[in-house]
Specification:
The protein is α/β, with parallel strands linked by helices. It has a single domain, classed as Amidase signature (AS) domain (Amidase signature (AS) enzymes), CATH 3.90.1300.10. It has 17 helices and 11 strands. Strand 10 and strand 11 form a beta hairpin. Helix 10 crosses helix 12. The protein is globular and about 65 Å long.
């Protein structure tokens, strides 16, 4: 059964369509492995019994024309699922059961996908380590002492540990690409507006975007094909001709020009990140791409601008959680007292920190000085990319400034934690697509990722570059199943 869980999505789909394995066999295999992997703390809500039932129904009446025929998968607990608890990793939504389905997940079920359960994440997607979740931190399957990254840490951990063949996360400032880098997996943040935000619990509405996470680029392209769609229920959804990403995937990138931004060589960047970047440039050259130096002059302002814009939008979005209509409620002496106690007890420290920052920058007398200025900087960052893309087809950078750090290492230093997003945040501010692929390891053997940034709505280009480089890099994740061995050892005591 363990052999089934190590197969890629493409391999699983092929085997199902050729009737070599059944949906029930695959589903039971992933459930069995997930049951043995509780220590990782990847799941918030399991839906195993229902998954087995759905798999049986598919086997009884299969449809091999579907893109995900009977494929089981788990998803980040930020996507509303009809009739299944959706918490966003927060105490304040611990009893919330949606009566509707997010568009992205509905697209998956329409193509034959089967829900295994909801995966752990930083509370309201606010975090870079998956340590802010009300349901506890997630462990990295690479090493028990490491964070899996965030906010989609449960997704990246479950994927790397073979608890799900594919998954979806959300990316507001790097929350797909950073955990992908930390776990040796592939994560794509699509262009803003390409995947519907309907039914996704909001953090920062002008930045949030759903995206695929997978074991390789080919699987990533297929899942993107499934989840990307125009949606009238989302006012930010963009109607454009979407590529058949998996069908049009190619390793021929000989006509592509890739830019290397000098501003991403930040002070204090570890030598191993610089070496990885140089190796990545060589890989791209070997694939036939042309490399040119470019400048993105306002890059240094991206992080401070982001940490003004994102908390401001979070402050507005999270005002709805007041204990009245739904979610957690604490009784108070009066209405105001109930509001205060509910929000004080229902939100974690990181969420409260960002709400306070956001409320401050939106307040009278500070709006122009902070929020308005940050939005102007955001425009300059977008202009930088627009100018660069007059010369290049894509941009190559590191995904993160380091490999995965230790659990608890940065929890008391929010600034240090925020700096983990230094290479990913500009992409969100500009609304561009970016993909992280595993490209090497540090001195401890922990995965390191490279990021490829593309033009708006040209996901096919960065997928092709990533696919080509992936073949050259030939990265193999070193997963030892230490958590299963630990469980067996404890049970034998």
């Amino acid at each position: 059964m363990s052999e089934l869980t190590s197969l890629t999505l493409t391999e699983l789909v092929k085997n199902i369509k050729e009737k070599k394995i059944s949906s029930s066999e695959i589903t039971k295999a992933f459930i069995d492995r997930s049951e043995k992997s509780k220590k990782l703390n990847t799941y918030i809500t399991e839906d195993f019994a229902s998954a087995i039932e759905k798999a049986k129904k598919f086997d009884e009446n299969p449809n091999f024309d579907l893109k995900l025929p009977g494929i089981p998968l788990a998803i980040k607990d930020l996507f509303c699922t009809n009739g299944i608890k959706t918490t966003a990793g927060s105490k304040i939504l611990n009893n919330f059961i949606p009566t509707y389905e997010s568009t992205v997940t509905q697209n998956i079920w329409d193509e034959g996908g089967i829900l295994l359960g909801k995966l752990n994440c930083d509370e309201f997607a606010m975090g870079s380590s998956n340590e802010t979740s009300y349901f506890g931190n997630v462990q990295n399957p690479i090493n028990e002492n490491l964070v899996p990254g965030g906010s989609s840490g449960g997704s990246s951990s479950a994927l790397a540990a073979n608890l799900t063949p594919i998954t979806i996360g959300t990316d507001t400032g790097g929350s797909i690409r950073q955990p992908a880098s930390f776990t040796g997996t592939v994560g794509l943040k699509p262009t803003y507006g390409s995947c519907s935000r309907y039914g996704i619990v909001a953090f920062a509405s002008s930045l949030d975007q759903a995206g695929p996470m997978s074991k390789n680029v080919k699987d990533c392209s297929l899942l993107l094909e499934v989840i990307s769609s125009y949606d009238t229920k989302d006012s930010t959804s963009i109607e454009y001709k979407r590529d058949k990403y998996s069908e049009e995937l190619t390793n021929n990138i000989k006509d592509k020009i890739i830019g290397i931004p000098k501003e991403y060589r930040v002070e204090g960047m570890p030598d191993e990140i610089e070496k990885l970047w140089k190796k990545g440039i060589e890989y791209a050259k070997e694939c036939g791409a042309k490399i040119v130096d470019i400048s993105l002059p306002h890059t240094n302002y991206a992080l401070p601008a982001y940490y003004i814009v994102a908390p401001a939008e979070a402050s507005s979005n999270l005002a709805r959680y007041d204990g009245v209509k739904y979610g957690f409620r604490t009784e108070g002496e009066n209405l105001i007292d109930m509001y205060e106690k509910t929000r004080s007890e229902g939100f974690g420290n990181e969420v409260k920190r960002r709400i306070m920052i956001g409320t401050y920058v939106l307040s009278s007398g500070y709006y122009d000085a902070y929020y308005l200025k940050a939005q102007k900087v955001r425009r300059l960052i977008k202009n930088d990319f627009d100018e660069a893309y007059k010369k290049v087809d894509a941009i190559l950078t590191p995904s993160t400034p380091s490999s995965a750090f230790k659990i608890g290492e940065k929890t008391n230093d929010p600034i240090s934690m925020y700096l983990n997003d230094i290479f990913t945040v500009p992409v969100n501010l500009a609304g561009l697509p970016g993909i992280s692929i595993p490209a090497g390891v540090d001195k401890n053997g922990y995965p390191l990722g490279l990021q490829i940034i593309g033009k708006a709505f040209e996901e096919q280009t960065i997928l092709n570059i990533a696919y080509s480089m992936e073949e050259k890099i030939n990265f193999k994740n070193n997963i030892t199943d230490w958590w299963i061995k630990w469980t067996k050892r404890i049970m034998n005591l």
